[in-house]
Design brief:
The protein is an alpha+beta fold. Helix content is 52%, strand content 14%. The strands form three sheets. Strands 1, 2, 3, 4, 5, 6, 7, 8, 9, 10, 11 and 12 form a twelve-stranded mixed sheet that branches. The protein is globular, with a radius of gyration of 38 Å. The chain starts with 5 loop residues before the first helix and ends with a helix.
């Protein structure tokens, strides 16, 4: 509203001419206002009126201050834009080196972003439930499910939990259409959905009492099943579907992202009420128990309370409440993957640091070439801070471009990680580039830009202006400070590369050790599939055994089939169910200490089809059926543990039953040990029972006992036989679904897939690190030789031997690499201990791996130094001496 005062005009001139403000605004304003007021008083105006007029003419103190602040901001923005434009022009003059720097940063930032997206989804992001931090998992025997009897007692006695619910796995057959399907399902008590506090997409959850026997069956559909089988029809509510031959009413549909429990039975896509009343006194351990902490309770307090409760129950019922643990749901979901993810995150951080070191090399080389430019700009008035800001702008531009390219690499990397994951990473479906991950990328880009740009900027801005202008650029030698900086950067690259290569080497050794494990069977040419009879006419006890016998017989008759058999649970790919037993003739075990062995119910032909060798005796034969003496085939570990130094053939074990006296079974064969649920797990007691003598499988009403896994050895390609086998099953019963079709080769590959997955990732990071380290030492040595052209020319002119020059240059590069390798070996000796859970058959400090990696890095250092050294020996002395 008033004409700008001379003070404001002078401030603007100061800002644009010098690029900074060096005014004491308060003092300047007071002096200027006082001067105007004095002039007005001299003309006869009253002092107060003069002061008021002076303030009006200046527009008021605060308005002047605001104008100055705006001027300062505008001037700063203008200088920043000038810095950016100049940095862009400078980087564009050397597109090759600029592109190489951006590529190195893109690899480091992209890999870091991809791995952080996994860490964020698995370790940092909360579970998608109402109050996940208050949900705990209660486990029996450290990691096992819980019995209904324990659940009842815990509910009755606990005060730390607001509610306690349970879930149980279920695999019903969905029939009533031309496409029968075996579903992965979970039965839950009514507390579970209230505990999770996730609203349904459609309909409602189970009501209290809806799990009571005799009530109409209800079911909640997962979003995938609703879309796949019901066309995402909103009118599905109230529709009746047939599960295991019984009608169920659809009462709700869950949202797409809902998965529970997220650490077990993750493929479940249908939920039904769990009725426990008929099993309240049962000690069969099949329930996954979850508790929601009361508002004033803590997990530590709940764990102490449960320890007290279970100690009393253990004294009352020995063997029923041992090692009961209370774990947070998040810790249970993450499981053992936390160390692996942290190792991978450290690995990509090392790759990023190596990339930063390489870019720092580039900027140091540019700094040496720009000494005269910086000296001239400093001589005409540019401050040191102004020059540092200009150089940091260039490094931040490089980092920003690397970050943008890194996001593209990360997007591809995340897709590849999710596709390649063998099931090792929980919640892998939630991994993605969300806002948090992009903010991480931004932060990493800024941090790396400052990290690799600050040291060269400070080193260049410290140069003495007079000395630099007098020396000029050509013919100058490199200062000791920058030489030491280059040596430090190269040494750090080799140290980081050695740590990564040692980690990858240990993973390779582990993988080779895993590959050398004998599974006890021959997986080649074998295809398997689960055939379930629940809810079909063939499930009736009189027809069940006949169905499976005829199925195996018809499959054997197919052209291209070598042999066939059936088992309840496949090794590595199926459940492990235990059966308590006693050795006949020995004192019975104390209560709660009865030994248990994993049992496999098989039809004749299974051992032969899997090519599991018999070390003694015979296998299961068609004569082993109801009415004939009970027999059992045990594994070698079982025999050696219970009958050491003597033959187990003919010995008898007593198989405990829920009701009645134990059943004696005679050992008729001893098989080779086979892997169970873990590829590298130690052998344990295992026994094979004839299907035709196992009453629970022949007559049991539980759907979990009404299926077998068909095992077929083919003469050609196993997957090619699946269609023919499906036709045989459909001909026998059109409502019997087939599920879990897979080859045993795939089962074995999945068993070692986690180690292979981490091996590929660590190997890739280590290869990138090795390449960057080699490029780093090559670039440093090449630059060093170019800076010493004059010196080398003089040495040659004076008669220096080319071999001596070659050894001189190589020795220089090798010394730095060896120093870095030594430091890296010390670091690796400590850091590889964190990989203990990922390794098998090799120690974290394996000397052979360390020695091999050190030798590899030494060879790389020699080769990377030899190329520029060889070029140095071919320098023409006359040309070198003319180089000033």
């Amino acid at each position: 509203r008033v004409k700008p005062s001379p003070l404001i005009s002078s401030v603007w001139r100061n800002l644009f001419r010098r690029g900074r403000v060096e005014l004491d605004l308060d003092a300047e304003l007071r002096a200027y206002v006082d001067a105007i007021a004095e002039e007005k008083r001299a003309s006869g105006m009253e002092p107060d009126e003069a002061r008021r007029q002076a303030l009006l003419e200046t527009g008021g103190v605060e308005q002047v201050k605001e104008s100055v602040r705006d001027a300062r901001a505008g001037a700063f923005l203008e200088t920043v834009l000038q810095d950016v434009r100049y940095a862009v022009r400078t980087l564009a003059r050397t597109p090759g080196s600029t592109g190489a720097a951006i590529l190195a940063l893109a690899l480091g930032i992209g890999a870091s972003t991809a791995i952080f997206s996994v860490v964020n989804a698995v370790l940092l992001r909360p579970l998608p439930y109402g109050h996940p931090e208050r949900i705990a998992v209660i486990l029996h025997r450290g990691s096992q499910p819980v019995s209904p009897a324990n659940l009842v007692e815990w509910r009755r006695r606990s005060r730390s939990f607001r509610r306690i619910g349970a879930a149980e796995g279920w695999n019903p057959n969905l029939t009533g259409s031309d496409r029968p399907e075996n579903l992965s399902a979970v039965r839950v008590t009514s507390e579970i959905f209230s505990m999770l506090a996730v609203p349904p997409l459609l309909g409602r959850f189970f009501l209290p009492g809806e799990d009571e026997p005799g009530r109409d069956h209800s079911v909640v559909l997962g979003h995938g099943l609703w879309s796949r089988r019901f066309g995402a029809d909103p009118g599905v509510l109230g529709r009746r579907i047939t599960l295991n031959g019984e009608p169920y009413t659809v009462v709700g549909v869950m949202p797409p992202a809902f998965h529970f429990p997220p650490f077990w039975n993750q493929s479940a896509e249908i939920w039904a009420p769990l009725s426990l009343r008929p099993r309240l006194a049962s000690h069969g351990e099949s329930l996954r128990v979850f508790g929601e902490l009361s508002p004033r309770s803590t997990r530590e307090g709940a764990a102490a309370e449960m320890a007290s409760i279970t100690a009393r129950l253990e004294r009352q019922f020995p063997g029923t409440n041992r090692d009961v643990r209370v774990r947070s749901l998040k810790d249970t979901v993450v499981g053992n993957v936390r160390p692996a993810l942290l190792v991978l995150f450290a690995a990509v951080a090392f790759v990023l640091l190596i990339a930063c070191a390489n870019v720092a090399h580039l900027l140091l080389a540019r700094a040496a070439a720009r000494q005269r430019e910086v000296a001239v700009r400093t001589a005409i008035g540019a401050s040191r801070a102004r020059m540092v800001r200009q150089l940091l702008t260039e490094s931040l531009l490089l980092a920003g471009a690397g970050g943008l390219a890194g996001i593209l690499i990360a997007a591809w990397g995340v897709h590849a990680l999710v596709a390649a994951d063998p099931g090792a990473i929980p919640r892998v479906a939630t991994v993605g580039l969300d806002l948090g991950v992009l903010l991480f990328t931004l932060g990493v880009s800024i941090a790396t830009g400052v990290a690799f740009g600050l040291a060269p900027a400070l080193a260049l801005s410290r140069r003495d202006v007079t000395e630099t202008l007098r020396e000029g650029e050509r013919g100058s030698t490199e200062g000791g400070g920058r030489a030491r900086m280059r040596g430090f950067l190269v040494g750090s690259e080799f140290a980081l590369a050695l740590i990564l290569l040692v980690g990858a080497g240990l993973m390779i050794r582990s993988f080779l050790a895993l590959q050398a494990i004998d599974p006890g069977f021959d997986p080649r040419g074998v295809v398997t599939m689960v055939v379930s009879l629940a809810g079909t006419t063939a499930s009736d006890p009189p027809r069940r055994a006949a169905f499976f016998q005829e199925l195996v017989g018809r499959v054997r008759a197919l052209r291209g089939v070598e042999s066939a058999g059936a088992i309840n649970h496949l090794p590595l790919a199926g459940d492990i169910w235990g059966w308590p037993f006693e050795v006949e003739g020995r004192p019975p075990s104390r209560a709660g200490e009865t030994p248990r062995a994993a049992y496999r119910v098989v039809l004749p032909g299974y051992l032969e089809t899997m090519r599991i060798p018999l070390l003694a005796g015979r296998g299961i034969s068609p004569a082993d059926r109801q009415g004939s003496p009970a027999v059992v085939v045990i594994n070698d570990f079982f025999a050696r543990r219970h009958w050491p130094g003597e033959s187990a053939i003919g010995k008898r074990i007593l198989l405990s039953e829920a009701e009645g006296a134990p059943t004696p079974a005679t050992v008729v064969g001893i098989s080779k040990n086979t892997v169970r649920n873990r590829w590298s797990g130690p052998p344990e007691e295992e026994m094979y029972l004839p299907y035709l003598q196992t009453r629970s499988y022949l007559e049991g009403a539980n759907s979990q006992l009404q299926y077998l896994t068909l095992v077929v050895r083919t003469e050609g390609d196993p997957p090619a036989m699946v269609g023919l086998i499906r036709g045989v099953v459909k001909a026998l019963d059109r409502n019997a679904p087939i599920s879990e079709v897979q080859t045993m080769d795939r089962v074995v590959a999945n068993a070692t897939g986690e180690t292979r997955f981490y091996l590929v990732l660590l190997g890739a990071f280590a290869a990138v690190a090795l390449l960057l380290a080699a490029v780093g030492i090559y670039s440093v040595m090449a630059y060093s030789v170019s800076r010493r052209t004059h010196e080398i020319g003089i040495r040659i002119a004076l008669g220096a031997d080319p071999g001596d020059l070659l050894r001189l240059v190589v020795r220089q590069g090798l010394g730095v690499a060896l120093a870095g390798t030594a430091v890296g070996a010390a670091g690796a000796a400590g850091l590889t201990r964190l990989m203990g859970t990922l390794l098998y058959g090799v120690a974290p400090t394996d000397l052979l791996t360390f020695a091999a990696v050190a030798a590899l890095l030494t060879a790389v250092a020699v080769f990377a130094s030899w190329i520029p050294a060889r070029r140095a020996t071919r320098i023409d002395p006359l040309s070198a001496l003319r180089y000033e």
